[in-house]
Amino acid sequence: MSEKKIVQLEDRVPKLKVQRRRRANRRFYVLVLILSILIVGVAYLQSPFSRVQAININGNVFLTDEEILGAIAISPGDSIWSMKKEAVITQLKEQPEIKDAIIERKLPSTLTITVTEYRPVAFVMEESEFVPILETGQPLTKGSDAIQAIDAPLLSNFKDKAVREKLVEELSKLDSSVRSSISEITSTPRETDPYNITMFMNDGFEVRASILTFREKLNYYPTIVNQLNPDIRGYIDLEVGTFFKSYETPQVEGEGTNEEESSE
Q: DSSP per residue over 194-235, as a string?
């Protein structure tokens, strides 16, 4: 029995040596791979490829690329990996025109910044100039070239700032196609309703309403107008229910008709 055990051990010794050699080789190769990765990584970080070489900006209409670049603490030549996305986004959102931003690294050395700007929802007249009002209620003071393409109503006679801010808030929630059909909104406050307004539409109709309730009702405006005779001018009253009154006669057509019925 002892001779058999000795023979078996002698047979296993070469196999054990081979296994140990293989394990040693694997460790060596792993070590070489790790060192190679470290060397390549250090070389990359020291090379121009790890530096920002281009910054692409998308989505901006009112702010120029230069204005956006001036708002962030990063420029070509900075490390593309030292940039903290959240910090840059915070810097961008400090601009009153910017609602949000997305920043992407595109290797080897490009940054892409996509911004979302607040929408202009109205105009006001200040010193003989039309000034757009953003959905936040802030005036838009930049982007003079793009202002020409804004389709929004003019606000007039709004002496109460809180009333105007409430109107801007409601306009921002209004369907854009309906909002663009309004030419002008005039504040016509009453003792019983300081939020009363008169809207002059692009199609020639006049709409009287309250800021507190007009948004829900005005979304039905296209349906309401389709039921009216375009040759008869008058105003649509949305203050209580929904009805049309001609300027020529005191006759009321469809009095008591609400917006749901008008939309049928």
A: TTEEEEEETTS-EEEEETTTHHHHHTTHHHHHHTS-TTS-EE
pTM of the predicted protein model: 0.72
Residue 165 covered by a domain = yes
Number of domains in the chain: 2
What is the Cα–Cα distance from 249 to 234, expressed in whole angstroms?
9
Q: What angle do CA 162, 166, 167 make, to 5 degrees?
A: 120
How far apart, in whole angstroms, are the C-alpha atoms of residue 127 and residue 8?
A: 105
Task: Tell me, yes or no, whether 22 lies in a domain.
Answer: no
Note the pLDDT of residue 32. Answer: 78
CB 53 within 8 A of CB 109: yes
Please report which helix (H) or strand (E) contains residue 111, including its range: strand 110-117
Which of 117, 145, 170 delimits the end of a domain? Answer: 117
Task: Name the residue range of residue 63's domain.
Answer: 49-117
Regions of the chain where pLDDT drops below 70 = 1-20, 40-49, 143-144, 249-264
- Domain co-membership, 101 together with 132: no
